[in-house]
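Continuing the series of single-chain predictions for the mutant panel. This is the parent chain; the variants come on the following pages.
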Amino acid sequence: MLGLAHNVATKVASVVHTTQKTIAGELSLFAMSDKKILEEIYTTHVHADESFDDDSLFVIVENILKRATQNVDKIVQGTQVHVDNIEEKTPKASFSVPLCTLKGISCEMQCKPPGDEIAHNTTVAILNKLSKYSWEAKASLTLAAFAMEYGEFWLLAQLRESDHLAKSIAILKRVPVLLKPSELHKRRQSILELNNLIKATLQVIECIDQFNKYSTYDPKDVPDLSIALDHIPVVVYWVIITVVACATKITILTSDEDKEYDLAPYSQKIHYVLNKLTIQLREEAETYRRITKLFRTPTEIMEVFKGLIFTKDNVQPLIDGSTKQTVKIDILRRKNVLLFISSLDVSDDDISILKPIHEFTKRDNQYKIVWIPIVEQWTDDLRKKFDILKNKMPWFTVQYSGPIAGIKFIKEEWNFKGKPTVVVMNPQGKVEHSNALHMIRVWGAKAFPFTKTTEEELSHSHAGKWVGSVVEGTHPSVHTWIKEDKYIFFYGGKDNEWIQQFTKKAAALANDPIFKEAKIHLELVCVGKGSKGEDDHGGLGRFWTSVESLFFTKDHKQVDSVSQEIQKLLSYKNESGWAVLSKGSTVLVTGHGVSVLKVVEDFEKWKGHVKEKGLEFCFKAYYEKISQASRPCCRLDIPGSNGKVPELMKCPDCHRSMETFISYKCCHIDGPTAHH
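Parent structure:
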């Protein structure tokens, strides 16, 4: 529930006045326009703290209020109420409750006298306290503060007859005052109205959560969606002021005074909001269902493409990158289409990888590449960036001014999370591969026609000779050395001192007289370093991107020795040092820096067998001996934004099931290495 704040801020700013007015003496609270409410509350919003997990908080609030309101119905109505089975939801284990914030909100609401102006001022005070939270989080936090009090009150009502501690606390909370048979009978209707209003308020926040999930649709496809997104802050205002009114009502119900405080206007307003949101959500669900049906029924590719990208009445021509002219989408009819889907963070490497594919496939005119840029909120700067990128691409580009119709489908069905992906579709609109970019990175045009079957065949046929596909550009002579079947050390790591040590020791090994006598040629390639020893961030980024892509082309349900070697190399990505020894294109050893350096340093201990048994046998045997004696933890960081992540991974060293963690990373730079 974190994604709406930026969109809302952009759209709402145009209606905000520089001064804030109070409602005292001006308008009735319920006669205030949405524009007027926005003027009142928008200055309370600073920015959204996107690190706050309001989803977990709302799970807890749901658990409390669904049970509390059920207890109220049971106590007040007795056997007349239907007791629902409530599903127990679990917040994230890492969630930390902002208790002081909740207590601060609770203090604002407690023991306030009734009155619309007081309720409004209290709401604004709460919004000021929560200025750094998203609009959705403001609503959840306020309801959570209320839920602590309301849940505790009715829990004490349930336990006070059987627990002495609960009985004493209940007296302090004035629970017996409300639960006297005479008072309960007299105030029965007020209690039930309060309880129903709390249920409806909870449902409104559930709708806001759903809008966050659906908000990436094109507003033109769902006419009321744009209005709904603009008015999320207004909805949050009505949620908070309703909660404030409910807190005041509880104070009155548990007091000795016989005051009146009619919640009917709040109930009418919150139910109006709820009904409106429910209708809009139903329309959005229908949009998703329509797109899903398109992909389940064999349909001509052009029709599928139209349904995925455009709204019913908003079909736009494509931009032909080779001519810079617009063309009708009929050009895709009866073609195989490669959908190049990405955000605007597309590197030159990503584009250069696809250019040979474009040249290769345009020969017989049966394949078309179409770039679909995913932008959820366009700005002038993003449009400029789009134009720059578009001009670099010789294939077709989708042009539009808003989010595409099927963005939710793309994210959920094709696991799109921001990084470039290539979805391959045949002329009947069937998806042949949900992300062929990995095999294109590894095998280029050899991967034609880019289907899942082709990927499996290539993976099997190139099983033991994968190193050549990931070392492109690491050294000018690398492909010559591979063709000459030379021994090659590819190595690198995070620790420059380790790299210097290994370079020195490995060079001494390569120049040892034993190697010359045995006619063994060993070459060294330091990945991530240029010819003069300077850092080559671009080359390093491309190397690890290729390794990751190779990893994703493997079927991890059936693990073989090749998959394990690739997995092992990927697990060394963030280590101080690593090395791969190959003979030509065949990988002999993939090793952790500590173990490999030890093998090289101990050359004197195993060099005597090299002439007789060969370098391959001697190095592998000694490496196995060293690695068994000292085996560091194996950590495998799989970029989840690249597609589906295997549910279970076996350790490439000991074959035990690996523990699963989620990690986040930023390298504080732009370009190819930003993701590494």
